[in-house]
Amino acid sequence: MSNYHIKHLEEYFQVYRKSVRNPELFWSEIAEEHFLWRKKWDNVLDWDFSKPEVKWFDGAKLNITENCIDRHLYVRGDKTAILFEPNNPEEAAEHITYNQLHERVCKFANVLKTKGVKKGDRVCIYLPMIPELAISVLACARIGAIHSVIFAGFSATALATRVNDCEAKMIITSDGSYRGSKTIDLKGIVDEAVEQCPGVESVLVAKRINTDVKMKSGRDEWLQPLLDKADANCIPEVMDAEDPLFILYTSGSTGKPKGMMHTTGGYMVYTAFTFKNVFQYREDDIYWCTADIGWITGHSYIVYGPLANGATTVMFEGVPSYPDYGRFWDIVQKHKITQFYTAPTAIRALAKENLDYVTKYDLSSLKVLGTVGEPINEEAWHWYNDHVGQKDCPIVDTWWQTETGGILISPIPFATPTKPTYATLPMPGIQPTLMDESGNEIIGNQVEGRLCIKFPWPSIARTIWGDHNRYRDTYFSAFKNKYFTGDGALRDEVGYYRITGRVDDVIIVSGHNLGTAPIEDAINEHPAVAESAIVGFPHDIKGNALYGFVILKETGESRDRDNLSKEVNQQITERIGPIAKLDKIQFVPGLPKTRSGKIMRRILRKIASNDTSDLGDISTLLNPEIVEEIIDELAFVTPVKK
Ligand code: PRX
After folding, report:
1. 3-state DSSP assignment of residue 156
2. Which residues of 6-23 are buried (b: 16+ CB within 10 A; e: fewer)?
3. Delimiting residues of CATH 3.40.50.980 domain(s) in the chain
4. Looking at per-residue confidence, does 253 or 118 come out higher?
5. Looking at residue 71, what DSSP letter applies?
6. Does residue 267 have a pLDDT over 90?
7. Fewer beta carbons under 10 A from the terminal one: N or C of the chain?
């Protein structure tokens, strides 16, 4: 029996039992057999959730790019590592072999060095889904610089906040990006951001859309001429297993974004192991994850997990609707994709369109389908299963988080029987539990509670960059000695888990995590706004959409509401990005508050969902009469005009 590749249900249970009985033995065997270490660890695991502190493979030395690239060169140097599919289907796809990837990463790494980037420095990457994105990530890892990829849909302000938080000295970007029929001026956004980032010394610019951009002398440089001059070999920096690999920002329910810090050894082992099993990856497969590398899914399951297994991983620059809604299936047919991994929001959007967009393509290469990012509803699950998988591909509903680094709960295809909307069983090494509100573990099946994890796994984030107290308070204080996920879940009669959604003030819109507080802060900056509260409400395609309750200042009362609504969304776009725009805005005279001044979001959520029949006990509110007033106006609320 191999611990590394699980093929049957019985094998899963055996491996799982072993992983729980003796986690150190389990993970050390996998780490030793399947990876390249410059020096072995002194200790497999040290942990204490009360501090919290977690160390895996402490004392070991390695470089993750040696594991993701160099060690494959002898066996599969001419195999495609990255298959780049451009936005425009007329533009040829690019096959980057492991040999070529090695050369391009080494050259890029040498460019970073000549620009003064050293081990431990932070480099922010603000790029579209072009090969330079994966290559720059790997180049940072090659020299031990800590990459922080910032999704290229974020605004200048959001970019600047993140760059400043991690004190990056360099930003890597491009002249612009293609998105369907549109182009986006990325360099302009970076220029605006850098105005607010005194620590940024240099900006490297890749050419993608060949447009004229302003280059600030002494700060900005075109990437290509530097690469042309760079040496094609770069000796990898030898890193400690616990050295930081990257920082990736995620929204919290309050305050500024949290820079989740992941380290090298454990992250590598866990993402590679889960990639192999969750996707049942085999040597000649062509694996495609549609996520953006700006999110954790792209880090773990486009770049590190697949490359550590020597896989061919597809990077897609475009969107599912361009040039039409058949694009995903066109790509599946063209590249004979074997594993396809996407988000429920994309499935729902495509399921709305004519079925011909799917049926006209040959999807017979597909073996495994995956979803991630939010709960998948039953209808979307069946559409995916019937029309894309043609009832012949297991669907892996993978539950995990930016903080977890890798997939924690998911079926293993061909082993775990799937059940629509259920993420099913924990991965080896993962010990989930459900907790009640008074902090007791809920034992047995057919129960519901707050999802926690009892024991560390190798890819758990080690801290929030620069704020370890916040890390402890957010994840380890709600339940003693447990990692609290912020999600609710139920466990069915056979022990399968179904994730029911967030139990905090994070709202998942189209698979993106959005904290309510930063959006409210952005709205409140509008000169006519006194106060606001955001809640989610069900949306056919996005899963949730945002509903804003906004109190105007006296000076704003006479303003045109349609215009104000547009301005509010403009304000959000500038502060955060278009993904956080509100679908509906209701201008209200007040917000329901508890006697201690806390907004009762539970009531607002019900109102926004048009479910006002049972609002529960509102008598304890400071201002119960406001609820009626808000409900009376509900019929007049229309979607915000574009
Ligand atoms: O609420 C869960 C939801 O997405 C949250 C994590 O978001 P993020 O850090 O952006 O990472 C997304 C990609 C890993 C979780 O707390 N979520 C993620 N996957 C699922 C899910 N909810 C239900 N089912 C899933 N498969």
Report:
1. helix
2. beeeebbeebbebbbeeb
3. 98-237
4. 118
5. G
6. yes
7. C
* Beta-strand pair 368-372/395-398: parallel
pTM over 0.70, yes/no: yes
Say if CB 561 and CB 637 are below 8 A apart. no
Q: How far is the CA of 400 from the centre of ligand 1 (A)?
A: 5
Answer for the pair 314, 85: CB distance below 8 angstroms, yes or no: yes
Percent of the chain with pLDDT over 70: 100
**Which residue has the CA at smallest separation from atom 3 of ligand 1?**
374
Query: What residues are in contact with ligand 1 under a 6 Å CB criterion?
Result: 250, 296-297, 372-375, 397-402, 423, 485-487, 499, 502, 508, 513
Phi–psi pair at 152, nearest 5 degrees: -75, 15
Q: Which residue type sits at 583?
A: D
Plot region of 167 (φ>0 → left; ψ -120 to 50 → alpha; else → beta): left
- Tell me: domain 507-636, CATH 3.40.50.1820, correct? no
User: What are the start and end residues of each CATH 3.30.300.30 domain in the chain?
Assistant: 507-636
Q: Is the pLDDT of residue 159 over 80?
A: yes
User: Considering the domain 98-237 in this protein, what is its CATH number?
Assistant: 3.40.50.980
Contact indicator for 317, 209 with CB cutoff of 8 Å: no
The candidate with the shortest Cα–Cα distance to 266, out of 123, 431, 461, is 461
Q: Which residues pair with 543 in a beta bridge?
A: 539
Taking 60 as the threshold, does the pLDDT of residue 1 lie above it? no
Q: Among 499, 510, 512, which is best to mutate for testing ligand 1, by the most ligand atoms less than 8 A from CB?
A: 499
User: CA-to-CA distance for 575 and 161, rounded, in angstroms?
Assistant: 10
Q: What CA–CA distance (Å, rounded) separates 98 from 79?
A: 6
At 112, which amino acid appears?
L
pLDDT at residue number 504: 87
| 515-569: pLDDT as tens digits | 898 899 899 999 999 999 999 999 999 999 999 999 999 877 888 999 999 999 9
Does the bond joining 639 to the residue before it have cis omega, within 30 degrees of 0? Answer: no
Cα 402 to Cα 115, 150, 315, 352, 536, distances in angstroms: 30, 13, 20, 29, 21
Residue 356: is it exposed, middle or buried by C-beta count within 10 angstroms (0-12/13-18/19+)?
exposed
